[in-house]
Amino acid sequence: MSDPILQAQGLTKDFRGFRAVDHIDLDVERGHIHALIGPNGAGKTTCFNLLTKFLEPSAGTILYNGRDITRDRPAQIARMGVIRSFQISAVFAHMTALQNVRVGLQRALRTSFHFWKRERSLDVLNTRAMELLAQVDLESFADVLATDLPYGRKRALEIATTLAMEPELMLLDEPTAGMGLEDVARVTALIKSVSAGRTILMVEHNMSVVAGICDRITVLQRGTVLADGPYREVAADPRVIEAYMGTAPQMSEAHP
């Protein structure tokens, strides 16, 4: 049976007469890794920002666990368990990897704004922070400043800080963008491993990543849904092949 955790119904966004997203319907199934893909200008980022409430829709409805969150703010849905990452690395550059993860863990202590407290008061979080760093293979980097981490490791740290907030639904914005092959493989394996017990929606350009770990794919073109389904089915769709203008053969060759 269908069990959507996140649904968009008739989702639409206009910018001064330009329709970037045009009546999109989307179901993200609980426990799945779901990818939003499409050529440049397809509306992926706008759709992603609508779903994570960084943009307000011009029309349509967004449901999370059956609750209407269309007019909620990002902080409100984050407290419900909807946590997103960004395409540009969003870690605290001059804090260590351990300290970055502790920031995410502070929510459970309800002391996020107690800036006058001594740092040592946060030591109670160290054990859990180290567990999360180990989960993303960063345990040996605990005392390294985020600014000194290689790019792929920074993205892994972002995932660790996201996990610290105990998300039910993780939204990842191009998690492997700008990475070399080794880092892509590491982060892809990491995403797969952390998906256990949660749902992931991601925007991703790397078709090998999409083919290897995604349960379902939604292809956007010019702000509308062009195709939706398992990777093999979508990759063989003539409309998708045409939309990618030569990149679709690469899609069909990439498989788990």
Describe the structure in brief.
By secondary structure, the protein is an alpha/beta fold. The protein is built from 10 helices and 10 strands.
What this model shows, in words?
The chain contains ten helices and ten strands. It has a domain at 4-81 and 167-253: P-loop containing nucleotide triphosphate hydrolases (Rossmann fold, 3-Layer(aba) Sandwich), CATH 3.40.50. The strands form two sheets. It has a six-stranded mixed beta sheet with strand order 6-7-8-3-9-10, with helices on both faces. The chain is globular and about 50 Å long. The model is unreliable at 252-256 (pLDDT under 50). α6 (181-194) links the parallel β7 (169-173) and β8 (199-203). It has helices at residues 44-51, 74-80, 97-109, 126-135, 151-164, 181-194, 207-213, 231-235, 238-244, 248-253; strands spanning 4-15, 18-29, 33-37, 59-64, 67-68, 82-84, 169-173, 199-203, 216-221, 224-229. Helix content is 36%, strand content 24%. The protein is an alpha/beta fold. α3 packs parallel to α5, α4 packs across α5 and α5 packs parallel to α6 (181-194).
Name some characteristics of this structure.
alpha/beta, 256 residues, globular, Rossmann fold, 6-stranded mixed beta sheet
Shape: globular
Helical amount among residues, as a percent range?
A: 25-40%
Give the strand order, joined by hyphens, for the main sheet: 6-7-8-3-9-10
Cα end-to-end separation: 25 Å
What would you say the CATH architecture of the domain at 4-81 and 167-253 is?
Answer: 3-Layer(aba) Sandwich
- Mean pLDDT across all amino acids: 86
Strand fraction: 15-25%
CATH superfamily of the domain at 4-81 and 167-253: P-loop containing nucleotide triphosphate hydrolases
* Spans where pLDDT lies below 50 across 5 or more residues: 252-256
Helix segment count?
Answer: 10
Q: Can you identify the CATH class of the domain at 4-81 and 167-253?
A: Alpha Beta
CATH fold name of the domain at 4-81 and 167-253 = Rossmann fold
How many β-strands, per DSSP? 10
Cα radius of gyration in angstroms: 19 Å
Class from helix and strand fractions? alpha/beta
